[in-house]
TrEMBL record:
Binding, Zn(2+): 14, 27, 181, 185
Protein name: DNA-3-methyladenine glycosylase I
GO MF: DNA-3-methyladenine glycosylase activity; metal ion binding
One of the Pfam families matching this protein, by short name: Adenine_glyco
Species the sequence originates in: Pseudohongiella nitratireducens
Length: 205
């Protein structure tokens, strides 16, 4: 069983919640719940890209600033960013000022627009990579899976950047493509129920 920790409310949660109090609300109300809104999916994947090499606490603390800086992750608007916007963002102390990641976010916004034209929505494309129950590892025991490797390769072939297998798997965890809450976490059942009621937007064969 993956480690859990009891909070002040007596509820057992995934052990990583013990790192900082800021994680509690995110863990309880966002992490692992299935998402089919394209803007939210783009936000989650972009933030996971920015998180690479950093702690999620850093990103979570800056999330509101990221939303303001990137037009609330409306990828149609971000796709129109120019070099002037890159320079503006590099001066924005409220976000992670990494030129490669900033340029990748703008590039990925353009790719997202193309994906919507070709696939109908980001959700329809992304949810094709939801793994079957038989392919799921024990919760929180791996940082990549065969499915995240395939997902990553497919995105890269389509021109997306900063979407390696680890980043993509973290996104899959966050967006609910997998329920990676610890077996003893009380929110694992809540997420499982949300997933049960969720209608996957992925096209059926």
């Amino acid at each position: 069983m993956t480690s859990t920790v009891k909070g002040e409310d007596g509820k057992a949660r995934c052990f990583w919640c013990s790192a900082t109090p800021e994680y509690i609300d995110y863990h309880d109300n966002e992490w692992g719940y299935p998402v089919d809104d394209d803007i939210r999916l783009f936000e989650k994947l972009t933030l996971e890209s920015f998180q690479s090499g950093l702690s999620w606490r850093t990103i979570l603390a800056k999330r509101d600033n990221f939303r303001k800086a990137f037009k609330h992750f409306d990828f149609k608007k971000v796709a129109k960013f120019t070099e002037k916007d890159v320079e503006r963002l590099l001066q924005d102390e409220g976000i992670v000022r990494h030129r490669g990641k900033i340029e990748a976010a703008i590039n990925n916004a353009k790719q997202a627009c193309e994906m919507v034209k070709q696939e109908g929505s980001l959700a329809a494309f992304f949810w094709q990579f939801e793994p079957s129950a038989a392919d799921l590892p024990e919760p929180q025991t791996v940082s990549t899976t065969d499915q995240s490797v395939l997902f990553s390769k497919t995105l890269k072939k389509r021109g997306w950047k900063f979407v390696g297998p680890t980043t993509v798997y973290a996104f899959m965890q966050a967006a609910g493509l997998v329920n990676d809450h610890a077996e003893g976490c009380v929110f694992r059942k809540k997420v499982a129920q949300a997933r049960k009621q969720f209608k996957s937007p992925a096209p059926t064969a």
